[in-house]
Amino acid sequence: MGVIGLVLLLVGGIVGVGILLTGGGDDGGSSEAVAVPEAELPQLGDATPVLASLSNDAPAPDPAVLSAQLTPLLTAAGLGSGVSAEVVDVASGDVLLDLDAADPATPASTAKLLTAVAALTTLDPTDTIETTVVAGTTPGEVVLVGRGDLTLSRTAPSESYPGAPTVADLATQVTAALPAGTPVSRIVVDSSLFTGPLTASGWGPADAPSSYAAPVTATAVDGARVSPGSTARSGQPGLDAGAALADALGAPGATVVLGQAPPDAEVLATVHSAPVARLVEQTLSMSDNMLAEALARQVALARDLPASFDGAAQAVTGALTDAGIDVTGVSLSDGSGLSKEDQVPASVLAAVVKGAADGSIDGASALLSGLPVAGYDGTLFDRGDAGAAPGTVRAKTGTLLAVHALAGTVVTTDGRLLVFAVVADASTGSELAAESALDDVAAALAGCGCR
């Protein structure tokens, strides 16, 4: 039991004992109160901060001193020869370090930062994504219509996505909407909202399905996982979703097929995803490729473009331009950064994070709250906590074969907020060596007065 729980238990016990001893009943009688000894509560230590506070008058690092400290780390053997980096002071906007930052580089999952900003600025962060079940063309047939919410859960609550809707809720609504006793014998899964190839150009043959990606469809359950909470993703997300609905309806033997809903079909059930802002946070924190692709498709739909890989890439780039980001050098093949063909300069990664940090990109704050905290959560839960104070480094990771990246915010030892982006896309060393080198860069920034 945690300390807080123990305190509550003790307090509750004291209140309960007091009631018993004073005997305050409803019969109007009275009894003599008995004194209760003063409780001895456990001593609580000082809380360790997770997020560092900022000083309004914190001094800015000197670019020359900062560069002298970082350059040896950026040329570490673990990062290889293809390193580009940028460090920006958020308050002033000054670039404190520029190492080939304008050169296009393979961003890996730091590309999710672009998708996140596009989603937050194109969509209302409070918007949700709908999943429906409609009546089919024959008795006993229902159609599961996906609109791109891949968090729909087979369990309540979801084991992967807090706040996700459930298949059980859909099933309950369907049962109530159908005439009493109507058996469901056939389930059609309509994923027609998403178009084009199921995998992106630049994805490898082993990428989908894998532990980190699946064919991108408009209908899926549990992030296209083969089972709730597992790491393995499915090769048939749509059919899995249909099977999950059949199970929830008590019709596990129902036929499940892919198809399309009839025009103007009666809606039998509707559920909604968590808000877009929450989906963005989940995407960034755990570097969820499937959520990133789904959000990119939502941006495409909102900009009247095809909900395909190409349409999503065009939509994300257009949304960034509209948000005031210079997208020179940006070329995207997907929304997750899984494609080896993606190209994003480090300066663009830094600009996106800076825009969220200084408020110049309106509505993008969920990007910051979604960034993993070094040594605490997300994809940085076991990284970067040795050389920096708790909560001072928050950053998006990126990893592909020979590609390692890190982009986010750091609070210096003087309390100055900086944005940084480092991309090493020609690494020849081990993943551990590269990640350690990136963590050393972030820790050096956090510990840098650099004046």
CATH class annotation of the largest domain: Alpha Beta
Order the strands across the largest sheet as they lie in space.
Answer: 2-1-10-9-8
Uncertain runs with pLDDT below 50, 5 residues or more? Answer: 1-31
Q: Please give the radius of gyration in angstroms.
A: 26 Å
Description:
It is a single chain. The chain is an alpha+beta fold and 451 residues long. It folds into 3 domains: 45 residues, no CATH class; 202 residues, 3-Layer(aba) Sandwich (Beta-lactamase), CATH 3.40.710; 145 residues, D-tyrosyl-trna(Tyr) Deacylase, Chain: A (3-Layer(bba) Sandwich), CATH 3.50.80.20. The protein has 11 helices and 10 strands. The protein has a 5-stranded antiparallel sheet, sandwiched between helices. β3 and β4 form a beta hairpin. The longest helix has 20 residues. The radius of gyration is 26 Å and the shape is globular. The two termini are 47 Å apart. The N terminus is likely disordered.
